[in-house]
Structure formats: C-alpha cells, structure tokens
TrEMBL record:
Organism domain of life: Bacteria
Organism listed in the record: Marivita cryptomonadis
This protein's name: Fumarylacetoacetate hydrolase family protein
Entry-linked InterPro entries: Fumarylacetoacetase-like_C, Fumarylacetoacetase_C_sf
Gene3D superfamilies referenced in this protein's UniProt entry, alphabetically: Fumarylacetoacetase-like, C-terminal domain
PANTHER family per UniProt: ACYLPYRUVASE (PTHR11820), FLUTATHIONE S-TRANSFERASE (PTHR11820:SF90)
Upper lineage: Bacteria, Pseudomonadati, Pseudomonadota, Alphaproteobacteria, Rhodobacterales
Length: 228
C-alpha cells in the first residue's frame, strides 16, 4: 500500500444528472473569446484566428449555490459558459471523431477578477490570478450525451437579479466543440475527466454581494447562484 507524506487531496468531482455517480475532474481548459460579440466587447478583432486556452484548477469548481466574493478585487465579472466533459482522450484527435470522446454537457460560470486580469494582460503575465481563484467556477450537474445528445445550438442566457445580462446561442461559437477538442489534442494529451469551458457570449459584467445569477442553456436546465 502506497504511503503518502501528507494527507492526499480529495478527488474533485461533479454530479451526474439522474445518476448516483460522480464525474471526476482531471483538468479544466477554458477557451477565450469564442463568441464574436464578446471579442468585440473586450476590445479584440472577432475574425476567426487560432483559438487560445487558459486553465482553471479542478478545485476551482463548486456546486454550491453561493459564490463567495473573492479578496483583492472590486470588479468580479460573470461569464456564462457550457461545460464539456470528456470520457476518453488522446492526441491528434480528428474533428470527425472528436464528439466520440464527450461524456456530457453542463452549465458553468467562469467568474473573473476582471481588474486583476486586466493588470496581468497589460504586464504580459498569465491570467491565473484573475481566473483560477477559489470557487471561481460554479457548476451544475453533467447531463450525459445519452440523455441530451450533442449540443450545437440552443439559447444561452444569464440573468442577474432577474435582468438579462448575457444572451446568445451555442451556434454562435467561433470554434465548435469538435474543433476545440481536436485543437487541444494537438498540444495536450487529453484524458478521461478533462473538462472544457466553451466560451461566453457578450454581456459580461460585474456582480456585487447579494446579487442572484441565473444561467440557463436550452437542454441543460438552469443554475442559480447567489454572490455571498
């Protein structure tokens, strides 16, 4: 029996809708500026270019209905995303077979310390301080492909205090799910438990303590989170 020098960290896992099982998470890849309107609102050219990704940590995921406002920031933004969970992986995966690796889909919020991210951008530094903080990715359960199919269209909506802030459609993604999987597999060896956050529509903006965020995507239900 292996003896570890310290207490082993817990396995990070997400619930699976309709099952008593959990989906263990290995890595989280987040694509940036994957909706043209969001690219424009962030000051970038929406023309299709090679995708780029940043990472959150598995233990940034949370299924709590409360998002704790993080320290050292006064400008925390919501970003509504679809989560893609992989059951298998590999390298150099063809676009034509990429969806065979998908276990299911879910709802996620890529919460962002926008002020700290902006400072990092200007300094040419990594974004983790703005993106990969504790509980920065509230999530709902994963819905299996067998239940919901493969989602390539459907309304994406995020409300804050019952006011629509973000709205779009999955068919507006610049890089579709099969393309994201294929591209990532050229640079990383993907594996079971990997998760991809597929980008956010336009309308990102700040939240304050007490705000109620409600994310919905057609076919995946809704996710309600209060800023605590």
């Amino acid at each position: 029996m292996t003896q570890y020098a310290i207490e082993t960290p817990p396995v990070v896992a997400l619930p699976v809708a309709g099952q008593d099982t959990l989906f263990p998470v290995r890595r989280i890849y987040c694509i940036g500026r994957n909706y043209a309107a969001h690219a424009i609102e962030m000051g970038h050219d929406p023309d299709r270019e090679d995708p780029f990704f940043f990472q959150k940590n598995p233990n940034n995921l949370t299924t709590s209905d409360t998002f704790p406002y993080p320290p050292h920031t006064s400008d925390v933004h919501h970003e509504a995303e679809m989560l893609v969970a992989l059951k298998t992986g590999g390298t150099n995966i063809p676009v034509s077979s990429a969806l065979d690796h998908v276990f299911g889909y879910g709802l996620a919020l890529d919460m962002t310390r926008r002020d700290l991210q902006g400072i990092a951008k200007k300094a040419g530094r990594p974004w983790e301080i703005g993106k990969a903080f504790e509980q920065s990715a509230p999530c709902g359960p994963i819905h299996t492909v067998e239940k919901v199919g493969h989602l390539d269209q459907g309304r994406v909506e995020l409300k804050v205090n019952d006011e629509v802030r973000q709205e779009g459609d999955l068919n507006q993604m610049i890089w579709k799910v099969p393309e994201m999987i294929s591209y990532l597999s050229e640079y990383f060896e993907l594996a079971p438990g990997d998760v991809i956050l597929s980008g956010t529509p336009s309308g990102v903006g700040p939240v304050v303590k007490g705000d109620k965020m409600e994310l919905s995507i057609d076919g995946l239900g809704s996710l309600s989170v209060v800023v605590g």
